[in-house]
Amino acid sequence: MKATTQDLVNKGLLLPLMEEFYTIQGEGFHKGTAAYFIRVGGCDVGCHWCDVKESWNAELHPPTKTETIVANAKKYSDTIVVTGGEPLTWDMTVLTTLLKAEGMQVHIETSGAYELSGTWDWVCLSPKKLKLPTQSVYDKANELKVIVYNQDDFRFAEEQAAKVNKDCILYLQPEWSKRDKVVPEIVDYVMKNPKWKVSLQTHKYLNIP
Fold first, then answer.
1. Who has the most CB within 10 Å: 31, 56, 129, 208?
2. pTM greater than 0.70 (yes/no)
């Protein structure tokens, strides 16, 4: 029986590709690093302050051969960042296997809302209150990046920090629209709680994607 498009997507042989681009990683541990970004459509976490809400509906983004995505990526960089949307909505095994076969460093940015699939060199976990991470992502997270929108997010950050592995690097990042208000609060919090570091969306200050 001939496989349907949905079957191929479910197996990770096709992925709903929203966009792909070569730029500078702007956030977290690898900020300042040249990287090729693969943005996969589909997300049901629904953060009200999300700056890529157009990624939520996977049906708006064409199912693209995973082999084609990898072929495009290897033209630009040895560091690949898979983001979304929520990339773990889909099985990442095929994508990461093909990328690793090309000798690439493969990173993921995820809310952790679904079980971890694929093989990763770096897992950036950015948890959301609406749909908490799975244990598999807590266990593998290399960095925890909590977005600070209001005071309750500091409580949430500590709650999440208690769940990740002991080697996970802890970041607090201001939500962009609230940065003037929350940056001083984050600075004060990090100075009082130095296990945390400040992450800024430096790509927005640089005016790049």
1. 56
2. yes
